[in-house]
Amino acid sequence: MKLMGVPLSPFVRKVAVIMEIKGLDYDVEPVMPGDTSEAFRALSPLGKIPVFVDGDFSLADSSAICEYLEEKYPGHSTMPQGLEERGHARFLEEFGDSKLVESASIIFIEKFGNPNLFGKEPDLERAAQAENELLPPFLDYLESQVPSEGYLFGNFTTADISIVTPIFNAAYGGYEVDASRWPRYAAFVQRVAEHPAVIKVRAMEQQMLAAR
Ligand SMILES: N[C@@H](CCC(=O)N[C@@H](CS)C(=O)NCC(=O)O)C(=O)O
Hints:
By secondary structure, the protein is α+β, with helices and mostly antiparallel strands. 59% of the residues lie in helices and 6% in strands. It has a four-stranded mixed β-sheet with strand order 2-1-3-4. Strand 3 (51-54) and strand 4 form a beta hairpin. The radius of gyration is 17 Å and the shape is globular. Glutathione is lined by residues 9-11, 33-34, 47-50, 61-63, 97.
């Protein structure tokens, strides 16, 4: 099994965490977002990472990959069992993958990516707007969703990592969830960060970053 991408991407990190929880044996092939090679584009029609390859089969989308992994390897389940909970977990996954990523990525790109990876000037005003205006309504919602202890649905699920992985990116830009404003969510982010699979993937991410 192969995971193409870099775990610095919130979506690649999400899939890697699920693969770790399921105890799967996989290699990471570093591919940067926007790779234009014909071989990559054949596997990723939208040109996005992650791409997952399992023998002759491949998939390019983190949610599709996590769903495939859950169905193929249900042993260490990463979805809740009840119908309504599964529906809600999918919604929270989408919440993390869409608006939360969009806002958190601005902080990551402007304060970390542009100065450190892309050789560009950071737009600090844009980062401040993301932090002060774009993110707060999404964090208000998450504050109402996360439990005061444990994970969203008991066992760790794809939804748990999905609603936190964008914050790990914002943290590269020095962002921290304000625990006085969002105490439950700030504690939840910390809890997810302490999960052994998350620790392992983030260590791999650091190694790949140091080696670039
Ligand atoms: N819906 C996709 C989104 C993946 C995504 O947007 N990946 C970014 C990197 S974080 C990317 O490859 N962007 C390159 C591009 O859009 O050209 C998923 O869940 O996998």
